[in-house]
Amino acid sequence: MGKMIRSNKQVTIFTNVLFIVFFYLSPVNAQTSPDQLLLKNFRPKSIYKIPQTVIEKARYPVIDMHSHEYAQSPAEVKRWVKTMDEAGIEKTIILSYATGSRFDSIYQAYAGRYPERFEVWCGFDYTGYDQPGFGPDAVAELVRCFEKGATGVGELGDKGKGLFYSKPGPPAWGMHLDDPRMDPLLEKCAELNMPVNIHVAEPKWMYEPMDSTNDGLMNAYTWRVDVKPGVVDHEGMIAVLERALKRHPQTTFIACHFANCSYDLNKLGRLLDKYPNLYADIAARYAETAPIPRFVKKFIETYQDRLFYGTDMGLGKKMYQVTFRILESADEHFYEIELFGYHWPLYGLGLSDTVLKKLYRQNALKILSK
Predict the structure, then answer these.
(1) Global pTM exceeds 0.70
(2) Concatenated DSSP letters of 246-270
(3) pLDDT at 104 over 60
């Protein structure tokens, strides 16, 4: 009898362990009460019986103005070209950040093998930026990259601490786009008709408190910006961009990701109204703008001559198709959490043919043909 009681206790313990393992390690779709569900596991699925559009190929030919060297071998580049064909991507701009031999190798891998399908933009070499005499060597390297085949510069990046997108050179902490030390480089870009793609700040959610009031917390926590002494905040970075636009009116600037003003596109609109040398790409900000489709559609229509299509999200076919669905369809309340990292529902913008043609290709040709 005692042996049977011990056996029952063992069974009870084993059962409890199985329950704990099942409850805490089971897939997200297991029964879970709201007060036990982790935000990172929240994966809602729309149950609305409404139209769902699958767009295999863009309605018009596309120039992707914002991508990177995602393919790491000749075979992968070849597969990417095949995917571009299937999705309707006529050309992709590879923003390499790179100088020196790294730029040369990226250029050869893409534009060298597929000159009609890729352009490669270089970076700036910030070596010695904090020493007297900075400038001539950096300009010489820019010219060398141009002669090698670079058709633009970017993506430059500054989230508040300084310009730091640079391969293989050092970051330029403390130096921003409007710094006088940048003048020779930006003036040479104007002379060579090389557009400059600049990433300023991050989306506003990344600067907000990382607590229950932040509706972008799922993504914001990963990309959060800690504003401390020596780090320029979001408003300050937009001011840096404006001072650079004013300082270099002959240089063409592309503020990528809607200048990270998705939360208030009027800020970008004011800059576009004021500075004819400014453009913006919409890359990797579909999740931040598709939740407010009427406002965003109106904004894109208003600035239809100054915006570029871009992705910045890899090279997969589905990635392209999701962007086309957002831009072309009028679909409502759908999710792409795995691609974008937000739990917000998305909505199609239903852009007109006229606007799509400009966004997809015509606007890009205006600056790529210079």
Answers:
(1) yes
(2) HH-TTS-EEETGGGG-GGGHHHHHH
(3) yes
